[in-house]
Each structure stands twice: as C-alpha cells, then as structure tokens.
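Support case: PMV complex. Customer-provided input:
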Amino acid sequence: MTEQDFILNKYLNSLESGSFTWSSPSNIALVKYWGKKKNQIPANPSISFTLDACKTTTKLAYSKKENKNDFSFDVYLDGAKKDDFKPKIETFFKRVEQYLPFLRDYHFKIETSNTFPHSSGIASSASGMSALALCLMSIEKQLNSEITDVFFNQKASFLARLGSGSACRSIEGDLIVWGKHKEITGSSDLFGVKYPFKVHDNFKNYQDTILLVDKGEKQVSSTVGHDLMHNHPFAEQRFAQAHENLSKLINIFREGDLKSFIEIIESEALTLHGMMMTSMPYFILMKPNTLEIINKIWNFRQETGLHICFTLDAGANVHILYPESEAKAIYEFISSELVVYCQNGHYICDRIGFGAKQLPI
Ligand code: PMV
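Agent response - structure generated as follows:
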C-alpha cells in the first residue's frame, strides 16, 4: 500500500446528517517508537499490547453546511466545551484532508470521554485520535459502501497515525506492529498491522497495572522528544536496536520465554528514557517514585522468581506487566508495596485488549 491508495476517487452516496460512535483503547509499546521522519513516518518499527480498560469513547455528529471554505467543528470533553482541544484537531484535519475530501462539507460535533481521568498522566492521544479516525471512516464508508473491512481498519490506522503516531496501534488487538520490519510480513510505516506469528499462551490475557506516579502535565511533549532524535548522537544505534529487539521478540513470543521477554521490555523502557537524558537539550521524565518502584520490582522478582516487569511511556507512570497465571501474588505485592508511591494512591488495573468497537448510539 502507498499513501495514494488511501485516496478514494469517488463517493457513491450523499449524506446530510447523522452520527457515529466508537470506543477505542490505549496501547502500551513493548518496543518503543521514538523518533520520526516527515509525515509521521516512524524512524524505527514498534510493537504494542492493545489495552482493554483504558479507552476513549467519541461520538461524531455531522451535518451538511453551505460554506465549504473552512473546517467547522466543536469539541466537548465529558459534556463540557473544550476549545483548547481545537488546535490539535485542526492540525489533524489539515493533515488528513487530502485523504478525506468530505471534511469541509460538514459541521462536526465531537463529544469525547475517557475511562481514565484526563489529568492522570496517561496520554489520551492514542485512544482519542484512533476513536476520531474510526468515526471519520464510518462516514466515509457511508459515502462509499464498497469499502472492505480490511481497507476500513487500515485506513483508520493510517489516519490515526497522522493525528498521533502511536494511535495507529489502537485500532485492533491484541499485539500490533507499526513500521517496516524485514521479518514481519505485511508490516508498514503507514499503518499498524496485527502481529502475524504464533504467540504462546503465556502471553494470553497479559496484565498491565498502571501506577500513576505523576498526574501532572509532561514538561516535554512527545512531539519535542521525537524531534530531539534528529542529530541525537545515539540515534542510529537506537533505531538498529529496535529492529533487533523486534526480531528477538518473534522467538520469545513463539516459545513463551518470559525471562527474555522481561529483559527486552525493561531495556526498551530504559533506553527510551536514556534517549531523553542524552539528547540536547536533555530532560528527565522519571520521578523519584518511578525509580523506587523499579527497584522494588527488581527485588521482588529476585526474591520470588515471579515474572513481573515494568515498562514506561513518555512520562513518570509505571506500567507493570505480568502473566495472568501469576496475577494473584503479583497483585498482592503491588497493592501492599507499590501503591504508596502513586499520587493519591491511584492506579489502574488493565490487561491486553482486542481493539476498538463501534457503539450503537
Ligand atoms: O504517539 P506519540 O507521538 O505520542 O509518541 C509515543 C511515544 C511513546 O509512547 C514513548 C512510545 C510508543 O511507541 O508509544
């Protein structure tokens, strides 16, 4: 597929007004995307677990308008008008306009809500942008009923990517690859694809307990962070390492090798933050409690031999990953030893999920 393949040259039907609602999950990267080229093309491939409980529900209402000069839309979060969301959506509309020529024909009302608090430090851009992209695809499918399910999902992922890179991994589940990788059939820089090979039962219903260490606004946005990978002294080695780690994961997933899985996942998290600490300007997103939690996890793993590990996204919060078969003991450890490090004791129990869903309302 190329970018051109996502431009439909005709719409068969016309539409006056209506609405579509989608609920779309967040995802957590195992091999991280950090650094990008023009047009939201990733500098290296990444792979993620789609989440289940952390999601955004978006209702997109559309009505035909006369004046086709500008985009016209209003945004609501939990029922309250959110004009400060508008610039990000305007940028998204500009980026996707050439692929969705109907965008200027309608006024849109975008009503969105998250299952996790907006101020939890959990980025809502992956779930939010994927939910919006799916709503837009539902309109396009109504305009052209010949669209297949495969094209629908690929284009939703392609559009979501233009809103926020990692959002392209939130359309489907349970393991999604984004970015061209020589050993992964069908992988593409343009959209996320389902991981195509065998995955051992050890990874079924894998758990992710998210410890909310710092709910504040990030000091450095991921856009700035990605940009700092240009001219970064370790960039080329890092991009090569991501390819290698993804290659190693193929065998690990097949064999159910939890020990090697842990090694790669934690190394990826620390490398991501290592890139932040070694860029110019440099920055640190981890907090003292992030490190307290990591050390506690390492000690507990050493003592018990249980397969608990952590990963981080671009912030201070810690995602604790573990197999379902060890969930009881690990959850007890988390609630008795780790929750004290969370801001106001807040954490979210999540697990692998299977992708976005259209809702009837
Ligand atoms: O999708 P963005 O531009 O917010 O970047 C996300 C980057 C990480 O979360 C740190 C890694 C990833 O692959 O999701």
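The chain has two domains: 3-197, 202-351.

Case will auto-close in a few days if no follow-up is received.
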